[in-house]
Amino acid sequence: MSISAAQVKQLRDMTGAGMMDCKAALAETNGDMEAAVDWLRKKGIAKADKKSGRTAAEGLVGVASDATGAVVVEVNSETDFVARNDGFQDIVRNVAQVALGTDGSTDAVASATYPGSGKSVAESIKDAVGTIGENLNFRRSTKLSVSSGAVATYVHNAVADGLGKMGVLVAIETTGNADAARAVARQVAMHVAATNPLALTAEEVDPAVVAREKDIFSDQARQSGKPENIIEKMVEGRLRKFYEEVVLLKQNFVLNPDITVEKAVKDAEKEIGAPAKITGFVRFALGEGIEKEVSDFAAEVAAAAKG
Description:
Oligomer: single chain
CATH topology of the largest domain: Tetrahydropterin Synthase, Chain A
Number of helices: 11
Number of strands: 9
Order of helices and strands: HHHEEHHHEEEEHHHEEHEH
Distance between the termini: 31 Å
Radius of gyration: 23 Å
């Protein structure tokens, strides 16, 4: 099959590999982008699989919390300009408050009653399209709760209190001082915003992700020409390193890289006054996972001129 320049560019943006290497990878994998990334990684040409492309969604992420729980919601708009609109900010703020009174699931929040309207959140957001002048969409929400302890919130790139481009929740269970626990959990939330871990513990990492990494590590190790028993140990070592990079509790703590997040929480127990344990986290980055069509403006102008 023929490989287009656009495919080569996309793979280059994803991996940082050279143009010829990207072309070869795509040729070897019949244009399968994900397989091409793996092919480059196995050759040691690309270090990581990065998401490419700009995201379609603008808008805001909002957080809200009470004594034992917190929510994070995402409401999208067509342009970033709307995120600075007071009316739109009020909508996101209200949706977050509504979410606190539900189980936090997207469907439950969408069907809950929007304040002062008598209509659902989903209907009220549709009604606001005419007022705001753009297509709006309530995309998702999640809630974390604790039986005792706290759920801390953190908003990155905040445009107003509780509203921004990224929202993080971190739940900490403890019978100790809730305010001290919340302060520690907020530091961990800032860490999560910076590192974007895949899971809380090694056991919670998606088995498909682990299998994919193991396959790549095995291929890389075999290129050394060492015997299988040595290769197995090499793969085990690489997997341990992988977990240290992607598992929250095993990561080096951003605020003190000499210790892990798990150790930082353990050290904070003295101030909290009781054992403490991180039981969950959520990280919403605005528009993640929604690919945006990036038009070639020069090509559009040329096409229009040919008209």
